[in-house]
Amino acid sequence: MKTAVVWFKTDLRITDNETLMKAISQNDRVIPVYCIDEAHFKTTPFGFKKTGCFRAQFLLESLIDLDRNLRELGSGLHVVNGKPEKELPKIVTKYKAHRVYAKREVAFEEKQTESLVQAELWKLHCELETFSTSTLYHAEDLPFSIKDIPDVFTDFRRKTEKEAPIRNTFDKPTRIYSPEIPLLNLPTLSALGLKSAAIDSRAVLQFKGGESEAIKRLKHYFFETKAISRYKETRNGMIGADYSSKFSAWLALGCISPRFIYQELKKYETQFGANESTYWLVFELLWRDYFRFMMKKHQSKLFQKSGIRNKELATEKTDWKLLERWINGQTGNDFVDANMLELKLTGFMSNRGRQNVASYLCNDLNFDWRYGAAYFEQQLIDYDVCSNWGNWAYLAGVGNDPRGNRYFNIEKQATDYDKNKVFRNLWLNQWQADS
């Protein structure tokens, strides 16, 4: 019997999962595995946890949901803890697997882990086969090679939209043949070195992990409320669940795929009509693709202070008190402070807020942008390595912004996007009352 392992990572879904479908179609038995990588819960050189409590909770919920969905198909999720390069070979040996199927990585640390796993599997005469499952457009279908992708988004978007196809989604499997998979046994947050924290009741959404929740959210935003038809007008909002899709958290862990969202969007447009707003969601998914392709092109440069532009930034020496005031919403700038409190207490912040607090850290505080990126990595439920570091480099003037430096007039932004101070009052007044 041909036995294969499916190594789940940030593709925690059964619908539109090429990795899973290829493994099922090419083998007699499949063992779905997730490794809780100890490296993901360490402290970074910037002094922050790689994974904070909000995202860790979302991950655990997503694993519970994936296990449930796999068991309905006759399988289950085998969860192991430790280093993937040590734990996956143990599974391969135990089940006599000849191949491991996994999502292809592009970011520096993830690629290193992938290489370590591949080297260890090779010793067991076991192949690692990887698939590109994270983007709307497949890298092989782009009208240029990765090394020739334009460093300006607009140039990339125009040519890609014009010349590249979007592939069809993969169906959900109907049956998975597996040996008996042990019952799910997940660590607690405290076992991962984290304190449990409930999402503040003022949060735009009480995020819950898993593919089931992702599809429920999509149905709500598209078909139940038709909020997608107003997306372009409302996307700069700051309060409430439906000013934007909020798909980012589920996309980040791969609980839903961009192609599945696109497929459902086309169904929506057929039923209710297309407009600028429905297009704008595709536009945002394309930005997400772009940052992933940029990571593939520039590799570790997006983690360096000088970025892809090799631009030396004259930042001041690190003042920890300044950074702490920014983190804790105590800068004295009410718009920045309200947004930072939202992030601290919920693990989420609006797109408008993210741009302003990043501009403030880089330009007003003259701080090394990588500390901001590292804090977001810890704090955000929807942290995505490519989008996070790509966006921060962009705001810091060392990434893909053709203008080189994006300074936000925060007082004007506050007036434009929080004219009556509703957002600021929501976060600052309650916080002052609680303090």
Could you characterize the architecture of this molecule?
This is Cryptochrome DASH. InterPro entries: Cry_DASH, Crypto/Photolyase_FAD-like_sf, Crypto/Photolyase_N_sf, Cryptochr/Photolyase_FAD-bd, Cryptochrome/DNA_photolyase_1, DNA_photolyase_N, Rossmann-like_a/b/a_fold. It comes from Flavobacterium cauense R2A-7. This protein has 3 domains: 1-133, Rossmann fold, CATH 3.40.50; 134-165 and 211-298, Serine Threonine Protein Phosphatase 5, Tetratricopeptide repeat (Alpha Horseshoe); 304-434, Orthogonal Bundle (DNA Cyclobutane Dipyrimidine Photolyase, subunit A, domain 3). It is of the alpha/beta class. It has a 5-stranded parallel β-sheet with strand order 3-2-1-4-5, with helices on both faces. It has 17 helices and 5 strands.
